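DM from R.C. (forwarded with permission)

"hey, sorry to bug you on a friday — could you get me a structure for this? deadline for the figure draft is monday and I only need the backbone to look sensible"
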Amino acid sequence: MGLARIDDRPARVESNVRAGQGRSPCPLPQHEVVWSPSVPNRLLARFYLPRSHSVLQGNSCQLLRDGVEAYPAMIEAIRSARRYVRLETYMFITDAVGELFGQALAEAAERGVHVKVLYDAMGSWTSRRGVFESLRQRGVDIRPFKPLSLSRGLRYLMRRDHRKILVVDGKVAFVGGVNISAHWAPPEGQGGGWRDDVLRIEGPAVHEIERRFLATWRMAFQEGLERVRYRMQGLRHLRRPGPPKGNVCLTVLSSRRSIHRAYLHAISRARRSVLIAAAYFVPDRRMVAVLREAAQRGVEVSLLLNGRSDHPFLEHCTRAFYEKLLSAGVRIFEWQRGVLHAKTAVVDGVWGTLGSFNLERMSLAFNHEVNAVFADPQLGRTVEESFRNDCGTCREVSLEEFRRRPFWQKVVERVLYFFRKIL
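My reply, with the result:
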């Protein structure tokens, strides 16, 4: 499949994001900084986060764009593991990328590393079960989350594990939207070239991310006294938060409503800009209201949305919100180069979030999600530059143009809007 560059290319992100070099000038306005460099990150975090959210200081973070940067860093971490590997993913597809990760995980298990892998049964339903069985035979403890069964009811089936987490030795963690699949591999290597973001983390926040994995594993596979016994074993093996590695303040959120509340709170406190890349955008009334209010008080509000989604119904449903947002001054850009799968936001260039949470009904009501929320001007500037470079190659939707769309599109949008809570 020609994916050797995934295995060999070093993972790095420079302040001037490489993906933006050589593109047309970005149509989004540039602004002066909102906060003085002397303001501590801890105070920034407290300003943009609700009071109930705890803040972990002393983290080092690196933005990785797409599978071409995320996969090499993840593979390198697995190959350097000495104690354990924890991988949780919605999709573990047994294609070329899945085989690459499977080989790295199996080799780690064979040299004595404790490897646990949790994949969602629905997200990975096309994968070959024989591949997973061969990994088990080589020492990888790989299990499906909620195997498909109609006997457990519809609500059981709808609650899926949508997280994407990799933790190695309690020292490094990866959180974002990238699954284990060739969809995220570069198109020149016959991959899908899907656009996405991953955050590589070192520091105390790694401990919190690992706790999320262990909690999901216990919930899915342990019962009664066995669950208590497993928890005690997990606490013995779980490392205490490590020493500070950087200056980034992080909050790890795994409650669906806490992630949603963090979005609303940060947008309501925005002074300069709100930039959101959303793979699937079917917002509730509170999200629409807070975005409109921010734009109407002079904040730059820009949305990067799918122009060609892998879920066409959601694509048309999303456009049912366009007129209300555009009329308030929100700018909308549609990603044209393949599929946008990122779930990334940055506010005022200092606060941001990356993870698995989508701004739509399934993430808010059903799925198990995890997001890393940061406060740091340097990381915020990197994420903002990445966003603006992406928008430089997108099609901006104008209110006048949108109102001239064909009548049949308006009908489809209204019908799908009516069913927005079940799409």
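R.C.: lifesaver. Residues 257 and 309 are 25 Å apart (CA to CA).
me: no worries. Residues 250-418 form a domain with the Endonuclease; Chain A fold (CATH 3.30.870.10).
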